[in-house]
Amino acid sequence: MTTPMTRLGALYRAAIAQGDPCAHFATLITVDEEGQPASRIVTLRRLDENGIALLVNADSPKIRHWQANGKWELSGFWPALMVQYRVRGAAELAQTEAVRQDWQSKPRASRLADLYHQRVRPQSSALPSRQTLLCELAELEAAWQDDVAAPPAVSRLLLKPDMLEISQASPSDRLHDRSRHQLRDGVWTETLLVP
């Protein structure tokens, strides 16, 4: 039986196959300590029937928000397919050797940013100037060792949806195919929604 997560995974792979520049990106929304939504673009490391995996900085504001109240939503759009999706549910944070190996496969610039957060300035902290950032990054890169280990805060956030909404756009008549799926007691139920 095809589950909604299997369907979403197939759409994800189709977006990648079609060269969709948004295929690997989505917006993670959390709720901050003042009850305000906070969103940022994240990179999808894996999306399949087991969930959605992200590599994150365990010390980042998004993780602090999620740990404080457990609330998150992931929203994405694949223009090549004209598909929008939203997911909510549980999440698990893990720091394993597999996560550290996955970190090694990230682009060098992304790994440099992670090292910067760990060694120089925390993610989302205030900067005196853009020039300060560029100078500090240049110094860090000059000291870069090819075999540098992943910073301790590098973690995998596994999103395990229990709500999934998929909307397949129909631009010609605006009668989009929109459905919400809920997981309860191990069983997915589908509700068709008015577009």
Helix and strand sequence? HEEEEHEEHHHEEE
Give the low-confidence spans.
none
What is the domain total for the residues?
2
Q: How is the biggest beta sheet arranged?
A: 9 strands, antiparallel
CATH level-4 homologous superfamily of the largest domain: Electron Transport, Fmn-binding Protein, Chain A
Q: What's the helix count? A: 5
Which secondary-structure class do the elements indicate? alpha+beta
CATH architecture field of the largest domain: Roll
Form type = elongated
Give the strand tally: 9
CATH class (first level) name of the largest domain: Mainly Beta
User: What does the radius of gyration come to?
Assistant: 19 Å
Mean pLDDT: 93
Report the portion of residues in β strands. 35-45%
Helix fraction? 25-40%
Layout of strands and helices, then pairs:
Blueprint: H1 4-17, E1 25-31, E2 37-43, E3 46-48, E4 51-57, H2 61-69, E5 72-78, E6 83-94, H3 97-104, H4 108-119, H5 130-142, E7 154-168, E8 177-184, E9 187-193
Antiparallel strand pairs: 1-2, 1-5, 3-4, 4-7, 5-6, 6-7, 7-8, 8-9
Keywords for this entry:
single chain; 195 residues; alpha+beta; Pnp Oxidase, Chain A; 5 helices; Pyridoxamine 5'-phosphate oxidase N-terminal domain-containing protein; flavoprotein; FMN
